């Protein structure tokens, strides 16, 4: 905050912040009679959207008193935005402006009496550019100075160029060697910033450093009249200690070149047989020649067609596959997508260079500076390299928990090797970039140049190539093209979280294909991107990341190289899509651009505004154990925080990240589906781009040293550990009862169930994830499908039915399948619906599947092969029985994995049947959080029946991430303490529980319900406040649809059982909706107008309910209806609601004109919800 004084002597305390959309009306109110004369006719909304930087000054009452907008090219269309630099050099003297150090002011408005003070405050707030320019003269002489035109200048005399150099507000600091007399000046800064160091090293530690300087150990200070900063340096650095911990290849290991350096592997990198990367390599090599032949033919055809209309120079572009680039760059991890597959192999197989030269780095041992001058921290470095002329690198080690400060934002973070035990981050700064930065004002370095080449891809789309030059040497290159699928992007991704789409022209959207920049200039990535946008006349860029599947083939029709610019872009969340009944919609169906099937991809984005918004880097090591729905949701929430960049996210999982298999694979049908994530979701998240993946099993936790032991060998260090392993089906031990003595269940029940501790037979299967299912399916196809022998499916969960149906679909005769169910441990069955249970039992009987009830596994016998189960015996309530067995699927015993339990228990974490947590997901260790079915609430809450298993796993993961973001996100306000007496209550989450799959007879099953403690459906129906049941169809006929409307007229549960596939994602949207919004469902049902709910929810009116932002529309309508202004107009309020219901029910506006409705309802929300590209039936009339 700063105090400014008006021309009348009044004072205001003001603070500067980024301009927000809600400021537009206040900004317009500041316009004066000469605003248009000075800046021209201004569309504030459009200008804010296209600006590089927009700032607003507010007083203590949060009133806007000044505003300014800056872009990277001149206003008034003085010259083309891509050519203004040469224009200034030609027309003005002593011009030191370059695209990297200059911004142009396109608008400035303020309260008249505070204009002078506000202009100075705004200019001094943002310090990245070295100059702000202004093509006009609005009486801002206090903040700007006039530039002199060159003789013969062609600039219109009506325009004056004003400049405000950076040093006017942030003068360059004078740096010199430290002296003992500086101690007194440094102590206040030292004490304020380093209380911990003072306590550790004593009060005179700083004086000792200054006094004992020599050639290898130097101390320097910076001063402005008095000393304001200090830096201690050491040139004797043992860089060999960093080689095992960090990927220093791009920096030549921080060593001088030596003839005996080993920089490349002695032979072509071999990829272990059977690994994913081996398949990638083999496939890309085998198909390379075939692709080249196809490209030659297509290139000839393209040239003949384009020569008729184009006169540009053509040049051939070899399409490089993503796979080939991945393999060529296999040792460099510029972004984590290239590294994630490597973590699945042993590190010893990765080649690492050997450097034998002398150290080429100087290390910053200690640094402190007054906060007022920290933006000039880089002024130290030019002097540092003068002190050590033989060193090319300056390095600094920073603890993981230390927030990123101004100095290291200009350093390059070195990518650590996996599981390094060094508890610090390493940052590197090259001598060349020091000179570049310090002399930027004098323009001694070549600007970011570019080369335009007219090139055409196979589809005829033109591309532009740009290069970055420093001293006539190319240090970076980028290739972009026009984004041709922008309507698809708009409809499938939440791009409008970052841009207001209607303010951008079609041709202003660009597609980034390739981007590479010399690692020592990596921190100039945003400058390079900014120049690309300016020179290409683009306002935004998009970069897709396509998924990798086991067929080792990128389905992307155009090549995209791995890019180090990814961390400067923001990942864009995908939008939930409506499953359209195209036949019913007819001409009202969305356009093909919106509804077309296309390979899903993860979308990343950058625009002019985002370039000047720095992400907050989080270096804390967050390790997640378990790729459960909770764990994936937790990682997704962190990754999609646009203003945060988590550099050290690690996932430990037995099979790595899910979603690696081809979509719609048959093995997925073996288990019930939670519908939290699907293949499309995994592709659109691309977690491998942001998360290091460790394939293995947690076998130990060392809380003192803070590391996790993987498979009893490897160590993964952490700062925060998140346990999300869940519960899994375990191998059930036979009771060992001698069936020759005819035992019953009563004799063995006390010893059942028990965990099996011996060697698991190879034909015994516990299915817990997709990889387990895939392995089992392959084994069945090789050993069972075309042979004789029985398959035993043992258990009482719903997974037994999906497994039996999958076995039948493989062609295994029903007479060979034996479904054995153990005694129930609860009165609630897995389906909890007598009608569906009857239909399933009838289907099993028709297929010839034998079903046994209340059976406990007593023995399994092994024949000639000790690794196979050949026979299984069971006890019952009467007499035992025995079955021949060729494959055994067990779903009878689900609990916490033993090795997970042992690791938790040995670490002295409280375990009471499950891992004990509080309401904030914390265990008894503040560094360890846990969530999911692995956990239970502490007994102090008296809520033993409620666990995370009762709630939606995706919501649990989101809430877990939200609770941890308070530790990292500086923009979040701390949570207020709960009211007295409420801290002993557990949170009740609202998301619905979902189960879906294919049951016997090929019927698709879906059950959506509220979070609850399960009770029998018959008992629930008998409750007096149960509500209303709406049921159409019959389970035996395969057209059953049940919907429960609770006493509050809200949809409480949905159950579907149909032979015909149905749109699950659409039906999930129905949960929690009021029945009036469902086209007056209760009334129509009571009147007998509904005979088939499947057809009812395919009608055109329902499409608005399925829209991903319909909930936001409801919230805004509620706010409008509850607002004070609307409450005063009761009649208009009733009319408003009535017209809204008409829109939702019938898809059109009744008379009178919809203008009355549109006045009350936010146009922004309506355009988002009832947009023509999603819902053609709901186009608004008169909104433009």
UniProtKB/TrEMBL annotation:
- Which residue ranges does the record assign to the CFAP61 dimerisation domain? 987-1105
| Amino acid composition bias (Basic and acidic residues), ranges on this chain | 283-304
Renumbered to this chain, region (Disordered) spans: 283-307
- Per its UniProt entry, which superkingdom is the organism in? Eukaryota
Concerning InterPro entries, the annotation shows: CFAP61, CFAP61_dimer, CFAP61_N, FAD/NAD-bd_sf
Annotated Cilia- and flagella-associated protein 61 N-terminal domain residues: 16-257
Q: PANTHER family annotated for this entry?
A: CILIA- AND FLAGELLA-ASSOCIATED PROTEIN 61
Q: What is this protein called?
A: Cilia and flagella associated protein 61
């Amino acid at each position: 905050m700063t105090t400014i004084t008006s021309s009348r002597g009044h004072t205001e305390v003001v603070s500067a912040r980024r301009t927000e959309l809600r400021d537009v009306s206040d900004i317009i109110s500041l316009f004066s009679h000469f605003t248009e004369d000075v800046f021209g006719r201004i569309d504030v909304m459009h200008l804010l959207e296209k600006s590089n930087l927009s700032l607003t000054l507010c007083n203590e009452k949060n009133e806007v008193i000044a505003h300014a907008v800056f872009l990277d090219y001149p206003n008034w269309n003085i010259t083309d935005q891509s050519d203004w630099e040469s224009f200034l050099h030609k027309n003005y003297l002593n011009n030191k402006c370059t695209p990297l150090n200059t911004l142009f002011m396109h608008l400035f408005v303020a309260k008249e009496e505070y204009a002078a003070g506000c202009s100075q405050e705004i200019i001094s707030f943002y310090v990245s550019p070295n100059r702000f320019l202004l093509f006009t003269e609005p009486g801002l002489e206090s903040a700007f100075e006039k530039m002199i035109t060159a003789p013969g200048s062609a600039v219109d005399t009506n325009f004056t160029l004003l400049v405000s150099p950076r040093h006017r507000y942030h003068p360059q600091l004078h740096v010199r060697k430290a002296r003992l007399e500086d101690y007194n000046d440094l102590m206040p800064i030292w004490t304020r910033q380093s209380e911990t160091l003072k306590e550790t090293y004593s009060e005179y530690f700083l004086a000792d450093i200054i006094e004992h300087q020599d050639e290898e150990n130097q101390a320097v200070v910076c001063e402005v009249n008095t000393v304001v900063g200090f830096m201690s340096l050491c040139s004797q650095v043992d860089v060999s200690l960093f080689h095992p911990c960090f990927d220093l290849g791009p920096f030549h290991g921080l060593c001088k070149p030596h003839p005996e350096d080993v920089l490349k592997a002695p032979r072509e990198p071999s990829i272990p047989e059977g690994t994913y990367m081996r398949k990638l390599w083999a496939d890309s090599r085998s198909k390379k020649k075939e692709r080249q032949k196809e490209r030659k033919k297509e290139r000839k055809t393209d040239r003949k067609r384009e020569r008729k209309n184009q006169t540009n120079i053509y040049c051939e572009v070899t399409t490089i596959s993503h796979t080939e680039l991945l393999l060529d760059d296999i040792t460099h991890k510029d972004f984590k997508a290239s590294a994630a597959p490597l973590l699945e192999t042993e590190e010893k197989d990765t080649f690492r260079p050997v450097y034998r030269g002398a150290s080429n780095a100087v290390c910053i041992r200690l640094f402190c500076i007054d906060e007022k001058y920290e933006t000039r921290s880089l002024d130290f470095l030019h002097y540092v390299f003068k002190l050590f002329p033989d060193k090319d690198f300056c390095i600094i080690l920073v603890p993981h928990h230390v927030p990123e400060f101004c100095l290291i934002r200009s350093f390059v973070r070195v990518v650590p090797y996996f599981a390094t035990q060094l508890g610090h981050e390493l940052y590197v700064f090259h001598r060349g970039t020091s000179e570049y930065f310090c002399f930027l004002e004098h323009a001694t370095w070549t600007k970011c140049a570019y080369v335009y080449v007219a090139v055409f891809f196979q589809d005829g789309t033109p591309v532009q190539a740009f290069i970055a030059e420093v001293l006539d040497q190319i240090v970076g290159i980028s290739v972009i093209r026009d984004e041709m699928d922008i309507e698809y992007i708009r409809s499938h991704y939440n791009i409008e979280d970052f841009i207001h789409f209607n303010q951008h022209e079609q041709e202003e959207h660009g597609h980034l294909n390739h981007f590479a920049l010399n690692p020592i200039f990596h921190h100039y990535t945003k400058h390079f991107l900014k120049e690309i946008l300016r020179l290409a006349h683009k306002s935004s860029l998009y970069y897709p990341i396509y998924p990798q599947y086991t067929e080792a083939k990128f389905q992307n029709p155009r090549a995209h190289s791995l890019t180090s610019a990814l961390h400067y872009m923001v990942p864009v969340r995908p939008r939930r899509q409506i499953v359209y009944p195209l036949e019913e919609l007819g001409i009202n169906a969305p356009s093909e651009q919106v509804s077309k099937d296309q390979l899903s991809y993860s979308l990343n984005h950058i625009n002019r505004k985002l370039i000047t918004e720095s992400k907050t880097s989080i270096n804390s090591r967050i390790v997640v154990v378990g790729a459960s729905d909770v764990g994936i949701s937790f990682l997704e929430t962190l990754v999609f925080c646009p203003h945060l960049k988590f550099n050290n996210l690690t996932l430990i999982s037995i099979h790595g990240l899910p979603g690696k298999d081809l979509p719609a694979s048959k093995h997925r049908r073996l288990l019930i589906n939670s519908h939290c994530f699907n293949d499309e979701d995994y592709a659109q998240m691309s977690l491998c781009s942001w998360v290091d993946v460790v394939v293995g099993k947690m076998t130990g936790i060392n809380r003192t040293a803070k590391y996790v032991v993987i498979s009893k060998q490897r160590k993964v260090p952490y700062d925060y550990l998140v346990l999300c392993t869940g519960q899994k089906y375990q191998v059930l031990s036979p009771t060992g009862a001698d069936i020759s003595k005819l035992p019953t269940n009563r004799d063995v029940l006390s010893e059942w169930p028990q965990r099996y501790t011996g060697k698991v037979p190879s034909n015994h299967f516990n299915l817990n994830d997709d990889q387990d299912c895939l392995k089992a399916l392959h084994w069945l196809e090789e050993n069972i499908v075309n042979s004789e022998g029985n398959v035993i499916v043992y258990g009482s969960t719903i997974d037994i039915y999906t497994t039996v149906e999958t076995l039948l679909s493989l062609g295994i005769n029903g007479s060979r399948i034996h479904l054995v169910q153990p005694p129930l441990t609860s009165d609630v069955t897995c389906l909890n619906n007598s009608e569906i249970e009857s239909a399933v039992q009838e289907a099993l009987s028709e297929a010839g599947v034998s079903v046994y009830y209340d059976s406990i596994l007593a023995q399994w016998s092994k024949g000639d092969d000790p690794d196979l189960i050949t026979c299984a015996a069971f006890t019952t309530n009467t007499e035992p029985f025995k079955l021949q067995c060729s494959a055994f699927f067990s779903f009878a015993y689900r609990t916490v994995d033993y090795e997970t339990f042992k690791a938790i228990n040995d670490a002295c974490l409280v375990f009471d049947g499950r891992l004990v947590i509080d309401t904030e997901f914390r265990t008894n260790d503040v560094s360890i959080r846990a969530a999911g079915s692995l956990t239970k609430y502490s007994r102090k809450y008296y809520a033993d029946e409620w666990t995370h298993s009762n709630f939606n796993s995706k919501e649990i993961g989101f809430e877990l991430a939200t609770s941890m973001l308070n530790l990292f996100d500086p923009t979040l306000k701390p949570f207020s303490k709960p009211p007295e007496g409420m801290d002993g209550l557990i949170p009740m989450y609202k998301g619905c529980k979902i189960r879906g799959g294919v049951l016997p007879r090929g019927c698709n099953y879906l059950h959506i319900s509220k979070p609850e403690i399960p009770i029998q459906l018959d008992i629930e129906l008998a409750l007096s406040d149960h509500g209303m049941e709406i049921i159409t169809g019959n389970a035996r006929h395969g057209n059953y649809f049940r919907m429960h409307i609770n006493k509050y007229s809200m949809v409480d549960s949905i159950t579907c059982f149909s032979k015909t596939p149905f749109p699950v994602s659409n039906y999930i949207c129905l949960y929690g909706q009021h029945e009036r919004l469902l086209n007056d469902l209760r009334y129509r049902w009571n009147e007998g107008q509904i005979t088939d709910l499947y057809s009812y929810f395919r009608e055109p009116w329902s499409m608005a309910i399925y829209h991903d932002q319909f909930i936001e529309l409801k919230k805004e309508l509620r706010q409008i209806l509850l607002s004070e202004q609307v409450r005063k107009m009761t009649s208009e309020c009733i009319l408003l609601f009535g017209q809204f219901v008409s829109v939702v029910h019938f898809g059109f506006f009744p008379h009178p004109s919809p203008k009355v409705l549109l006045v009350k309802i936010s146009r922004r929300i309506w355009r988002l919800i009832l947009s023509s590209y999603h819902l053609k039936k709901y186009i608004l009339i008169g909104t433009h």
